[in-house]
Every structure is written in C-alpha cells, then in structure tokens.
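Researcher: First entry.
Model:
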Amino acid sequence: MSRTGKFIIIVSAIWLVVSTVYASYRTSTALQLWTMLLALVFFVACLGSIVLVFTGWRQCRWRSVIPLAACFLAVVSYWELVPVIRQQIFARSLPSYESVIRQMESGQIAVSTNSMRSPLAEKQARLVWAVFARKDINGLLTVEFLTEKGFPVLHSGYLYTASGVIAPGSEADSRWPIKHQERPKWFYISD
C-alpha cells in the first residue's frame, strides 16, 4: 500500500477518535476548533481515497480500496459510537441528577416559579455547566441539566419534568427545538 493510503487510514482513525470524543461530550471550544480543522483534513483524505482507487487499481488491485473502506468505516463507526457513549455518560451522571431533584422537591434547594439558575445544584450535579429549575403553578418541577455547550450557539443536556411530558407551548418546548425521551420523565434536549 502506498504512503498516501497509509496516511489516509491514519487520518481516518484520528478523525474517528477526536470527533467521537467531541460529539460525545461537547464542552471544549478548543477541541471543537480542532475537530473542525480535522474534519476538513478528513474530507480531503476521503476525496484522496476515491482517487487512489482509480490510480492504484492496476498495481494494488483490491488493496487500493482499503483507504476508502477506512474512511467509510470511520464515518459508520462515528454514528454508531456517539449515541452509545452519550447513553453511558448519562447513566453515570443520572444518580447525581436524581439527588439534586430530591433536594429540590424536599425544599433543600430553593426553586421558584421563574426559571432560575441554581449554583448549589450545579456543584452537586455531575458534568454540568448550568442547572435551571422552576415549578409551575401546579407545583410540578422542571429541571434543565445543561451538560454541553459549543461555538457559536449550541447547548444540550437533559430535562427532567415531574409530569413526564413536555407540554406543547411550554417554556421548555419553545426553548429546546430538539428533544427526545431518554427515560420516563427524562429528555435529551438541544438547540
């Protein structure tokens, strides 16, 4: 295999690792910028792997397809790995989130009817950069655990609703255009 083919395989592996790490837990702006630069290099490598199939076919036959297969495998692996890793991070963080919710429901952490940031909850919840909580007029608790932020505007995390649903037209519904249920009363949210 040519040096170019080996280089493309190495770039594919590096892109897979760095992009998966970033997409699994987006918090570092520096890592995001490196990921964007690496994505450009990976795109060029993908184009190069296509060219290698045609230019290297006479000499290497099927081995000339290996760099293209590496690029394809990297993309497929990325889409398969990121949701699994996110689920694991959420599962490991969930006990700390549930502890915060119990404290809010018992009154140990104050919650008002307006959505307010809770510094005390942020200290206790695992892997969050912000926690917003509010109680509606019926006393139902809604808590946003924001775990990820990116550049220029991208936030995501988990939403707990005591009712188990995000009411259409509610503040949470309008604030988070991307949402899907993770578990009963828990939603993954993103903008």
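Researcher: Second entry.
Model:
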Amino acid sequence: MTDLERGLGTRWFDEVWNQGRRESIAEMLAPAAVLHEGGADCVGAEGFYPFFDRLHGAFSNFRVTVQDTIVEGDRACVRWACSCTHTGDTLGMPATHKTVHFTGISILRIADGRLVEGWQNWDMLGMLEQIQGAAKSATYATVS
C-alpha cells in the first residue's frame, strides 16, 4: 500500500465529514465500492449520498479525529472520535443544539488509490441517547 493509500482513511474523515465536501465522496470511493454499516449496504457514491445528506442535515460543526490507523495488506483500520452539534431534524427529532460525542472504527479495503469496500461500527445508540437526553431535558423544562 502506498503512503497516499495509507492516508486515505484520514483524508476521508477530514474532507467528507470535517469539511463537508460532498464531492470528495465520489473522488475517494470506487464506483462499485460497497459500504457495510448496521446490517445495510450501500454501493458507490450514489448509495452513500443519502447517509451523508441525512447526517449533515442533522448535525453541524463536525470534528472527526483519527486516533489510530493500522494498515495490513490492502486494508486499513481507522479508530476515530467525533463531536458535532445537533442542529437539524433529518433524524426525525427536533434539533436540540447539543454537542454530542461518539466513537467508531472503520475498516477500509483500498485498491488503486480508492476505497473499494468498508465496514463501519460506531456508537449510534450513544449518540441518540445524548440527543434524546437533551430533548427530554428541554421538554421537562418547558412543562415544569
């Protein structure tokens, strides 16, 4: 794996999430790339755009920090942490304006300088609990 390919995971999180560069998705994903997440698969940039749009519609101020990258053969394992602010309602709940923190691990298969397959696990439940906790607190404060 080249140095450029070794850094592809860090580049993905920086450009796609921290900078919000939607166009970087098609640049870094191979057209037939398969991304596996939570029992669902998406294929290529077109398959990933709805996920990207939903999260960017729900959150702002993304700050993803890559904490570790381990590379072997054609795969890179990236351990990361994220903080962002819940400022939109695209997750089906009103914005709480709370900053949430969660972590994840992504395993990426890379070929010819592009992501061709990925497996992702991140703490979605922890993120939702932080949002719902803020929503419950706001509801309680307005009812009291």
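Model: Note on the second entry: Confidence is low (pLDDT under 50) at residues 138-144.
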